[in-house]
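Homework-ish question, so no full write-ups if that breaks the rules, but can someone show me the predicted structure for this set?
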Amino acid sequence: MSATSLLSPRNLRLLSGAPRGFLGASRGPHHHHQSGGRSSSSPLTCPPSSSSSVSPSTMCRALSSLTTSRRGLPKEKMSENGLPRPKVLTLDTMNPTVKMVEYAVRGPIVQRAVELEKELSEGIEKPFAEVIKANIGDAHAMGQQPITFFRQVLALCSYPELLNDNTFPEDAKNRARRILQSCGGFSMGAYSPSQGIDSVRLDVANYIERRDGGVPCDPENIYLTTGASDGIVTMLKLLVCGQGMDCTGVMISIPQYPLYSAALAELGAVQINYYLNEENCWSMDIHELQRAVNEARQHCHPRALCVINPGNPTGQVQSRQCIEDVIRFAAKERLFLMADEVYQDNVYAEGCQFHSFKKVLFEMGPEYSESVELASFHSTSKCYMGECGFRGGYMEVINMDDDVKAQLTKLVSVRLCAPVPGQALMDLVVNPPQPGEPSYNCFIKERTATLSALAEKAKLTEQILNTVPGIRCNPVQGAMYSFPSISIPEKAVQEALEKGQQPDMFYCMKMLEETGICLVPGSGFGQKDGTYHFRMTILPPIDKLTILLNKVKTFHQKFTQQYSS
Amino acid sequence: MSQQHAAVNGGLPNGKVLTLESMNPNVKKVEYAVRGPIVQRAVQLEKELREGAKKPFTEVIRANIGDAHAMGQKPITFLRQVLALCAYPDLLEDNKFPEDAKQRARRILGACGGQSIGAYSASPGIECVRQDVARYIEKRDGGIPSNPDNIYLSTGASDAIVTMLKLMICGEGAGRTGVMISIPQYPLYSAALADLGAVQINYYLDEDKCWSLDLKELKRAVDEARKHCNPRAICIINPGNPTGQVQSRECIEEVIRFAKEEHLFLMADEVYQDNVYADGCKFHSFKKVLFEMGPEYSSTVELASFHSTSKCYMGECGFRGGYMEIINMDPEVKAQLTKLVSVRLCPPVPGQALLDLVVNPPQSDEPSHGTFIKERSAVLAALAEKARMTGEMFNTIPGITCNPVQGAMYTFPRISLPQKAIDKAKEEGKVPDMYYCMRLLEEEGICLVPGSGFGQREGTYHFRMTILPPAEKLKIVLEKIKTFHLRFIKEFS
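A: Not a homework solution, just the prediction itself:
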């Protein structure tokens, strides 16, 4: 029970008061230079009307201890009538679900990394010459070069005068013309339909059909999104309803990508944890799914199951059999399936292959393919493109109720449309140069180089980390991360707890301060009680990655030695 | 629920997991007329036309949305040159591009991870863009300081508005957050409030006084609202959408005093800040007025103001660029805001780059300055002319009265509908102005948004029309509306 509820909203609630969370970060040195604000921020007295605005729910009460701790702060400015005038919007009167949101990938450790970079640039002495941000899957920031063809077409779309320039290959021009023709006024500056540009959705549908060996795909089921995150949050939002026992529960893997826990916290849904099996290369286990859903049914209404394949942060690639089992489970338990497949091209290990949930679903025959509701997500940010900044993505919805689909279309229309340059890029990803076209060879060369370098780095990471006593690392079968388990000596655990830090946060923070390497502690993704991990991207160039891994090795040995009695 | 679950034992259960009955009830309440049923019908009609169906018109003219480029407005050359350079930096070697465009591109790329707009940016936005935004605001506001730490870049202004509203929502029952919005309003606000389950508090603009904001009306609205919710914020759109009014400095001062007295967070939607056409009207930012009112106000009133790359002279809607500036926000709340935006990683980087160019356009000694000024002036002058033309034309039609379009991009004329037409609409289960607009669409191919989508005083009817079509086309649109309106009135008299 204690393990299963580690990341439950109830515990997140408590954790958010601990210094490891953002609340703690906001008290750190980072915020001290923001002068003046603190003095007027204390909600000592609320006006009568707003005191009732503090949510009566326990979420707020759990945080009231923080309020108490602020009560000794300097007196705030007096208002005309001599009474203290608090801000309209304070920690105590803000949206309580927002406070429960946590997103470790850009959490306190990354804020400290940014500070360190600043200090370095100001000439302050550090035991390292540069900060290496291995915390996030940001390929271009790590030196990966964009695919030439993609950027040529985007330049042409941005500044169509270049269509008269004969330095650009014909296929890039043709692609740009086609995209511009489906934009209002032939400009990427026009809004697109809210669901996305028609011709791009058509190309996405064709891509999916090809990928899935001919299983049909209807462009009407494709929604272009602002990165995959946007699609995922939108789908979760549709699913959330009910109160108490009837409140929607959503099953997510532990470890998970913290977008899921963050979105569920914000939506006030119940997070249902199912644990991946680290001993078996982070595989998914149906018994564990069953346990999780059975326990959850006692206090909420499980309605959806999220699967990330290839896995983030755990790098496993699911077998076809496993996907079938999951689909059967979803059908039996009446769960809406959400398949996060943004790493679909990132499969490195021999014998591993990406199988889309859609394909497997349709191969299981009409009993499943006509009933199981599925949303699958893809993005321009990962794979060989790594174009994170463009925020391109799509989702495909299968077997969605027509009325709900109309509501979905309405909901996305409020935000008008996904960024059009990202839509254009998505189009190129699903419809790259074809054999016989002038850009084909260059495209294939670039794509292959990126993917084979990633495969090599996946292997290298696993190898080096597994030579370190006290670090154990599953093979990185796919995606872009390694999630090794680390043994932390009891003395270090004690010291961390004394500081109010999770032990792996303590570990990663020390590593950052001593080596300049920025990783994300396993606690930000969730892990079995008493185990510790970190997530590291495999994206740095191979020579840099080698140095980085050796630094991690040296640090770990030193750390272990320091805390062994 | 338990019955459905029981079906598990006897094979696969029937019915969807996610149905209209079992979905998020707040989402069902969301309405967004600007892309509502009338636009869906317009899309269908376009398709039918393409397939050769006979219609009383040859093209559908979408005057429903402020989408400048779709209406033929050309992008500003300099902005697009820099974006092309950022997208494909090999072009930096190309001497077809002016030096200032190249310099700008180099500076933006230098601030991107790996020198690529394909890298994620910091979640509040690229540091140097936030600095440029702060400098732009300082310049705009006559030197009032702006701190880059208070700037958050966003995915269009909509994103930032929804984020700010989200921060503010809490409480249950009579303690539930209420947010004051103008009626008529831009329906993003009502949609977001419905989605968040907040209480919408309506204050009515005074149509008889050119849609001005009236303090007594604000007071009435907040007093009534206090009986059933906790009013915590007031939203102002200036220049107005859909109503096109430009607020006087004095009016803004009154609103600020009101916000302070009533303890409300101020949200100023200023995305049309360059779109001011009427003589004697001028854009005053809430920030500037706030600081000119002295420390009693400038150090207390909490304000968020919003801007975007989608409107003004740029009209670059597709890039989804925007920012908000927050003033006097509690530092702990600000930390929560920073955390919240980090979950979505970052706003689209091409939009951030574009915003940088908007706040830092070519300077007088740079090679692109001449062209830039020429293009910008041409767009703004054409808009001013179209605003004038639209107001004049509508006021010649019996049964249509129209306030001057002082700013923004829309006209929101009032239409008097015969009782018989109202009855007919009700028979068809439609709001009367929806019925009117639907008929206009079917008969003339012109797509407008009915006033009911924005809110209006009961018993009054309006529509919103953009003034964006090229002048020649706009004339035709106005003529067609006139013909239709006269025919419609005659039919139901």
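Now go work out the reasoning yourself. Hint: The longest helix of chain B spans residues 369-394.
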